[in-house]
Write a structure and sequence with these properties.
It contains 4 helices and 3 strands, in the order ββαβααα. By secondary structure, it is of the alpha+beta class. The longest helix has 17 residues.
């Protein structure tokens, strides 16, 4: 999985915000706010990553168990897909 190149993440006022690029802005007029964890994973997915790789990155970065990491990654990927953030 990889983040759709038509979306960019910026830190604005201390908040992690995903915005559409100019090319995408006529299709999507929304912005999305990400948590610290969501932003970490968004940055990780700027390159192609498998679900297993994302789980490992989450486990390496945060003090959580594997079952929680897997559940959180599935929820995040579903959310990103529904918002059109994935290629």
């Amino acid at each position: 999985m990889k983040i759709n190149a038509d979306f960019l993440m910026r830190c604005i006022g201390g908040e992690n915000i995903v915005i559409p690029s100019k090319a995408q802005s006529f299709k999507c007029n929304r912005i999305f706010k990400l948590s610290e964890t969501g932003a970490f994973l968004f940055r990780s997915m700027e390159c192609e990553m498998s679900e297993e790789e994302l789980i490992k990155k989450l486990l390496d970065e945060y003090d959580i168990d594997a079952a929680t990491a897997k559940q959180d990654i599935k929820a995040l990927l579903n959310d990103f897909a529904q918002k059109g953030l994935l290629e």
